[in-house]
Amino acid sequence: MVKLDEASNEKYFPRGGGSEKPKKADSDVPAGKQGLKRKSAAPEQNEAKKVKEETSWIPKVEENCFIEGLTGLGVVAEVFDDGVLLHTAGTHTVKVHASEVSKKFTELFNEEKIEMKDAFQLGQMVPFRVISKKNDKGKAKASCNPARLNKHLSPNMLAAGLVIHTSVVSLEEKGAILDVGLDQITGFIEKAQFPAGGLKEGIPLIVRILSSTSRVVKVTSFVEQDNLNMASCEKLQLNHLMPGTILECEPTGDAVTAGVIVGIGNGLKGILPRRNLPPRLRENPEKLGKAIRAVVMFCQQNSKILVLNAHPDIVAVSRIEKRTTFEGISIGDKVTCTVIDTIPTKSIVYFTLPPIDGKKSLVTAISSRGLLENPDAVASKYEIGAEKLCRVTGYRYADRTITVSTRKDILNQKITTYKDAKCGDILDARVHHIAKSGVYFMVCNFVKAFAPMSLLSDKPLTSQKIKSLFRMGTEVKCRVWQICEQRKNLIVTCREQILGLKGGATANSVEELEVGNTVPCVIRKVFPTGVVLLATYNNISGVLRRESAPANPKINDFVIANVEKVEENGRVVFVLKDQKPSLQAAQNPGIGEKKLVQKPKSADGGVAIGKIYTGSLACKKGEKANVTFTGEAKKEVFASVDDHLLSDLLDAPIGLTKRILMEKKEEDVKIVPMGKLAAINRACVKRSIPKLLKSMKPVKKIEELTIGRVVVGVVSQIHTNIGVFVEIVGGSGLVGKVFERKSAKNVSELFEIGQVFVGKVESVDVAKKSFLIDPCTEMENGERMLEQYALPLLESIVEEVKWLAEHSNYPPPGTKVDAKITKELEDLTLVEFEHNGKKIAGVVPKKPESGEKTPKKKKKSSTTKLIIVDINHATNEVILAPPTSENPRIMAIRRDYLCAVSSEGLIYLPTRLHPNHLPSVDSKLKIHTVIDVSHQKSVSDGVSVAVRGGGDVDDVARTTMIKKEFIGTVKKEVEPEGGAQGKKSIKNFGIYNGIVLGAAAQAGAKRTALFVDIRLPGDNIGRLHISEFPPNLLDAENPLQEFLQRNVNKTVVVRIIGFLKAKKGSKIAELTMIPSKIQAGKIRGSQLSYKSNYSVGDLIKCFGAATLTDKQEIKVEVNPLWIGTISREHLSKDLLKKAPGDGGIVDFALEKGEMRQAKVISVDRKSMHVSLSLDTSEQENSEFKLGATVTGRVFFVSKTYIRLKLASGQQAVLTPTAITEKYEQVEELMEQQLPMGKLVDVVCAKVQEKPKRYFVVLEPRYTGQCSNDKRKLLLDSASLKEGAQFDGIVENASKGSLFVEIGPGIQARVPVNEENQEILEIGTGSVVRVTIAKVTKSETLLKLDDILIRKWTVKPDRKRNASKSEDVPSKVALLEEEKASDAAVEEPEDPGFDWSNKGFRNEDLAAVGKLTSVQDDEEEDDSDDEDEEEEDSDEEEVEEAGAEESEDVEDEEDVEDEEADDEEEEEESDDEKVELLEKSEEEHSRMVRSDPNSAINWIQYMSLFVEKSDLAAARKTAEEGLKAIDQTESEELIKLWTAYLNMEVAYGESATVQEVFKRACQNVNSYTIHKTLAKIYQNAQKHQEATRILEEMVKKFRANKLEVWTLLAEHLMTQKDQKAARDLLPRALKSAPKAAQHIQLISKFAQLEFKHGDAERGRTLLEGLVTAHPKKMDLWLVYADAALKYLGVEHARKILERACNLDLTTHKMRPLYKKWLEMESKHGDAASVQLVKMRAEKFLQSVADNVMEQEDEDN
Questions:
Q1: Which of 554, 706, 1120, 1561 has a CB 3.0–4.6 Å from the CB of 1566, allowing a cystine?
Q2: CATH number of 991-1173
Q3: What is the pLDDT of residues 1498-1541, one digit of tens each?
Q4: Residues linked to residue 818 through DSSP beta bridges, in sequence order
Q5: Are 63-324 and 991-1173 in the same CATH fold?
């Protein structure tokens, strides 16, 4: 244990003063040196304190002090799944396990009802007791269980102000009951004393005692608001203190080097160490001249340990935010710190942070040996006052200190936060913590990471194995798997296979994935159909098709996959690495270009698009070649070089080139940027590209492409059924498709990947970012082609051939050598020669024998002069030839060039006369062929390039043949009779042979067409729909793919069944291949055409269109005329799979062309649309079978129930008790797992007869075993017995009753009387415990026992949005249009009928209450008097509506078609309205039975009888509806009561009206009914009755509803009784006591005066308001609006000018200037608008000047 003299440099100090006689020392040190000299205390003082024990407390805790029993106060630093780490004073750390929190917490934790993160937050202060010493890992184990922590306390020690630790046992109505750890004593905290975040059962809570009795301790969570009371301080004893207690410390005036000596009460003294003082006092502790508050950080029973801390952020115990914010400094930030202290012996440096606003920072910094640069030279390198650049590496919460590092490697590291990492990176990690769920790491020194169990190893690991492999502090390799925003850390993997993966793409999002990327994947789910769900980096999920899946896949197995396609909705389809996407594309021609073609992004990161750079070229083993060069702004750029971008040779030795580059990098290489793929820059190093680009302007973006422009690129992709794609060089990332002529060869046969391409832009679509390139470019002039393309390309090839030879230790071609003949063969002579000391073998081709005399053979080993002709690096064969004096003779033939030998040396001749030319084998070319050359040009000593001219082959003549390859041979058209040339005609219903071209390139405008293009005679084009395929193909899974695979480029027999008009006047033939139609003779066209008579119940074939509708329904095609949709609940079982995690259902869409058998469930003949179901089973699906599991789709969600559409056709109800037995989580589950549109499996549980309702239960709830008998699933109300206790969920509360659901469809009632009125405040969704009090036939009565979870109704606050720029506002902030207007005063909605006629048919309203008349101008003017915010929101709605309308218009033709369709729809809709009115009584009866809770169904039923003048039947229907509608459906009830009142006012008598009115007030909201009836009377011109009702409203509701005064006043004014209306204002002001209500009333009455009375009176009233309340902007705005409307623009201008002259804040002035500017824009001129802008600018400038002056004064 540390002694006091070691901590304070004080040998000893007594409690209440000292004695001159020193205490006897234990050592031989003289007594005079044992302590500082002090003045003696007065004799009477010493006498008074003799009875007290002289003692001292230890102010510092060292490692050996962490023994069992030590109590302390820690700050939560890390929260794990099984515990928390606490930082304590003095840089110590303790760990609290989940089992040591509290008894209640442990129970809930074991039941998985609470987690550690629910109970602990970073920065939270937690008292603890050490239960085991520190281990080797430097952490002591501690407990915060109140039973352990407070076990030494007795009731008489629980003084006011003492801080103790507790745990929440239960939540009550008025507060919470707490466990204080003492027998027979309970803690209680009132709701007013709850922390801001609220309380939850089981969570720990640090509290301060307010008062205590023998059994109850009253506490508060606001610990820092008071100290230990004075009475307790006067009796303070050693064992009375608890960690967290706040003391008032009085400085004694005696300072020591370690801090300040303070008195804490009862003569006891302690030390406040310098490090525990506020930062502003640490340098000069002697400045502490008055009492200071300090919190106890450590204390121990029967010990002398006392550690105090007076830092204000630590003293604020309950304010977590004080300890989690470090003045905006985050881990990973760089800060400049100043050295304020050092401890050289321990290599510790203390820093201070830069001051904030001239004040010293409350946060300090510390760095220790492991984080310091030059830790052994602290004294010399870290002088006091020196500034150092540091990187923040962590926080010390308990000391309000940040840890920093000055090490250069840490300062320069790239990953400083979890967001900086890239998924796929391999990092070094240090084990930080081991939990059951996984291992926690630290990567890059201070970045947190976590590896779950499934990602730790390829093999399952036991807990023992994990502890041995991942010991605390050990370092391991890991790969970043996910960037976790929720945990704010990295998810990493240590799986051996993933770590061992070389290469592959990295991606943080789906958008970064490209087709063909290789990624590691983990199997997450295997579906019964064989489809496998894979997960890769950053939780990117995708599917692996059944045919691509590995054998016996298992969950968590590792596979390497390639990205096959990324769909627009973000869905990824994978294929295993050994399966190539391009091969699949060839097998599946239906896969579109968009999904297969890789399109790079433009280069960035210091790369200028179009610029040619010079740099170095290198390569590493197993990787692609790469280049390094200096980019823009002198930034070093690294780029990858794909193999096809490395060489100009068609048969390039890529392996040899890479081996050469691995040995030595090549400098001064010309580098051309290419597009960026997978976030990596790419480059091209072909030698020919820079030469071709010399005379061309680079293309930077697609907008620069114009038709006819010549571009240079490289062939990057070839898809047989799609085409050839060229990437434009320069880095723009543009990829164009090669234009293909029908008369020419297939372009995929004319090009190779990597081939240099020069083409002319044929067409451009900027919107789709696509373009076509014509390969037949610059081919008209043969001479120019040779000069411009053939020879420059050949020169680049020669240069590369020479480079390969020199770096392979061969002599370059053209070199003359002395060779020895080693062997003579029939056609070759084998020779040997030396080069650089190495013997090399070669061959000399022999000249074929002729009729001439053969010369004598040279002797073996004789020497001869030979020329190196060519080197075959694949076979290491060197070809040589003797010099000749004759004409040039060909000695070597390659794809890219020919080698000839002449008297002048070696001549290279081109075989590729154009970059786009792919040379074919020429049978005329043979070795020793004599040729003529022209255009000869020397390129090096003894080597030249030339073209062939004359002789058997002339290269100029060959250029015309090349052009034909791209253009093709156009056949002459056969002249028809009459001499005119034209196409061969085809006739309707004719039978022809056609050639299958492939899938249709474009779909129709209104639907996704599934057609195949077929070329008919005369080059006519026809289209064959998938529904017209031969029947044997329709049985295939995907008939479209099967048909194309069998018949592309083959001849088929088709019959024309009609013609379709296409654009530009052309026609397209509609075809069929159905044998019965082809063989039919002359029959009607309707029999050959597409089927169009479908009926409900028909089984038909439909074909997937691979798209979804706006309602997320699957779109299919039946034939070209009819389309269909399949709702998600009507999918077949193979397309519905249970999703992992939430229990919902994942549905898979149909592939394009996939055929399915479907049943027709509805037909819309007008739009030619059918609704289908893929469940074609013969059994009756419409039955609601109890116990059956069905699929349902959520289509309505409310707080009290969910409605689903079942696959069987019914609408079912899912209540909260049918979701889960964990009632506390029902609301969260409804929000997260049952949103709108969600598919879910439910069990048919119950049918309620009156009214008819179907109830369902979630499958886990139905089949699962309920652990709580009080929450078991109740389906039969007959099983309820009096006295049984259940848990239920509150549905709603109404006058006299609280309705509780205890089972699906089982609703019971808690009666409410005067004694228990407070239970009506229980909100919907609250969980309560009830007992069955009484069971009758009609209802069940309950007794409320307890409120388990209480929900409160939160009213939204009306707040104005503050300006974005408060201090120095900009002109834009003041003058720009407000996007989000201030909160408007909402107009109360009229109950029942929507007076805007939304949701009701005009016929219904006319029949019931004749309320559909158009409102007059005065009613329309009502909207003008609303607040400015409502006007803004209306304008925004109009703008949005206009935007939606504008989006619907596509082109002029479509508009005309739509207008014609609209007219037809209007005519048909009128017919439909008549049909609706003429519905039979039986049909209406069926409607109310199908949905008894729908008021509109009952209203329509009533209207039927009103039309028949059968008022009695209409009343009876209304009464039945009121009984049938559930009492919880208050809105529906109000609608029906409103219709009932309408009907009685229109057709009944006053007595019946009053009777209905009285009953309505008793059953629903009385105020709403009063207001409704008044409105009905007004519309019926019954003004006396309306006045009576409104006056009654004033008497009954004036205390709560200010609106009643203005409603009555407005009614009187409309009746020209202005005097009576004005007399209401004084009465209203007396009735409303609050000033704010006065303002509102006067403002409303003033507006009524403007509208219906005297404008001058209104002006007087508003003038008085703005004079008395000039800072209320809404008054000025109302005043200006009224003046503008009723007095003119001049009056409004003066009002706004007065308001803008006020000295107000920017936030308040902004709406004034905005209103003024809008007014002048509409009603003023340009000069007045300019004046307002100048005034606004002047105001802004003055505000900015004031801010600058204030800053200057502060500095």
A1: 1561
A2: 2.40.50.140
A3: 898 888 888 777 888 889 889 988 888 888 788 889 999 999 99
A4: 865
A5: yes
